[in-house]
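F.,

This is the one I mentioned.
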């Protein structure tokens, strides 16, 4: 993941489908009580894979954003 970027999860939009965890289990988890996506920072997957995951989210609940 390039420095200065992170993934923001819109937890209101997330339905807990698990797509992100299936695609990138080193960077996403559903480990809270709501079983909704959580981004692990620093991520363990490549930036390219994380971009694919953001695009694959069925609810559009993931966004790549600049940390600043």
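My design for it:
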């Amino acid at each position: 993941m390039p420095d200065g970027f992170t993934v923001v999860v819109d937890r209101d939009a997330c339905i807990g489908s698990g797509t992100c965890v299936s695609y990138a289990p080193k960077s996403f988890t559903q480990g809270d009580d709501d079983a909704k996506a959580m981004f692990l920072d620093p991520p363990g997957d490549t930036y390219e894979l994380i971009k694919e995951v953001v695009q694959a989210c069925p609810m559009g609940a993931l966004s790549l954003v600049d940390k600043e």
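The radius of gyration is 11 Å.

Talk soon.
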